[in-house]
Amino acid sequence: MKRIWLLVAATIVLVVGAGTSIAELPPLIPREILFGNPERRNPQISPDGKLLSYLVPDKNNVLQIWLRTLGRQDDKPLTAEKGHGVQHYTWTYDGEHLIFALDRDGDENWNIHSLNIKSGVVRNLTPYKGVQTLLVALDPNLPNDMLIAMNLRNRRFHDVYRLNLRTGDTWMVHRNPGRQFWWIADSRFNVRVATNLTFVLLKNPDGNRWRQLHRWQTGDPGGLVGFSTGENTFYLFGSHDSDTGYLLSVDLQTGEKTVLAQDAEYDAGDVFIHPITRNIQAVAFYKDKLEWQVLDSEVADDFAALARVRKGEFSVIHPSAPPSYRHVILAVATSPTRDGLSLTTVTTDRSITTLMNVPPRRPHYFSASGQNWKVCRWPRCNRSLTRPVMAL
Fold first, then answer.
1. Which of 74, 113, 118, 247 could form a disulfide with 260 if both were Cys (CB 3.0 to 4.6 A apart)?
2. Are residue 380 and residue 279 in the same domain, yes or no?
3. 353-369: b or e for each residue (b if 16 or more CB lie within 10 Å)?
4. CA distance 91 to 190
5. Does residue 173 form part of some domain?
6. How many domains does the chain have?
């Protein structure tokens, strides 16, 4: 009997103690702070360099495409989508259409839609139920067409199709033999490079057989970049015999591989490519912040000028196509909480123009102060904090 009372007493102590601990827990961080939409995102310049597009959440917090004329304040919405809204979009090279992807209730079976910026007409170019569509390629030499991948024939594998933006005509240009999951086409939209989990494969000139171009290291970073203009060289990210990922060029005739950019401690993560020559002009490494290694002296002064605009890091968001290649939009990010983003262009004479300032979405830091979360604005409380800080 005494043992039973001891068990009951111990249980009461545990329950009371747990209740006290639960009551002392800090309040939950609002979900909007962690997962809410930014005020603006994904800005892009039109191929002719005259228009700026970007995403903005509407009153229902659904992302929509907006458009403005550069140098004016004539911003207007172009879409009124429901559900998840527009998550991914881009300009086509005809300068008249934007294309964007929509799925159904988060099923990730994306349909690609076209939006005519003049008429406002939206068309579903891939209205296939239960089929996932992925954008493979756009090319300035073929402004009315694009390459897409769809699992239309077989839900397990994607094949590559060519789609005409004006007519909607679609036809298969590459049948997946199985286990290929991404492709790179040449300037004539011939699929010449494919990858699976083990190899990068190159199609022979006769178009009948594939041969190994590069072998992936299992679990190591890697990715496909594309062809040079003459299409005798292929660029990719690799990490063979190295602790870090690097940028690599492969001679398609000899198979010779050359490391173009590498860091001893950090992976190469992004590239800046000339849209005409297809030469890689700069490579990004994310160290303490994003840093660029310039490979082409033609853009060295541009990158130096942008680095002086404001303190912090900058990333190239969208280089515009000819004839406005020198009109480049960049995001210059300073303090992640204090200054937000500044969308900036650099033109032929290397003059700097700010197109749009985006205020910070979450200008707060949360830190454990005693038993409660302390909300404070940067930088006033950063020096006094002795507990772990969560930057949001």
1. 247
2. no
3. eebbebebbeebbbbeb
4. 22
5. no
6. 2
Beta strands in 170-219 (DSSP E): 170-174, 182-185, 191-195, 199-203, 210-215
Nearest to 187 by CA among 262, 276, 55, 64: 276
Q: Which domain holds residue 370?
A: 362-392
Span 223-271, pLDDT tens digits: 889 998 888 899 998 887 778 888 989 999 888 999 999 988 888 888 8
From CA 318, how far away is CA 54, in angstroms rounded? 11
Q: Which pair of tokens denotes residue 124?
A: 């579903």
Give CA–CA dist 96/46, Å, rounded: 9
Q: What is the pTM of this model?
A: 0.79
Residue 47 included in any domain: no
In a domain, 62, yes or no: no
Domain with residue 270: its CATH number is 2.120.10.30
Residue 166 lies in a domain: no
Q: Quick one: how far is CA 228 from the chain centroid?
A: 22
User: Which has the closest alpha carbon to 380: 358, 361, 365?
Assistant: 365
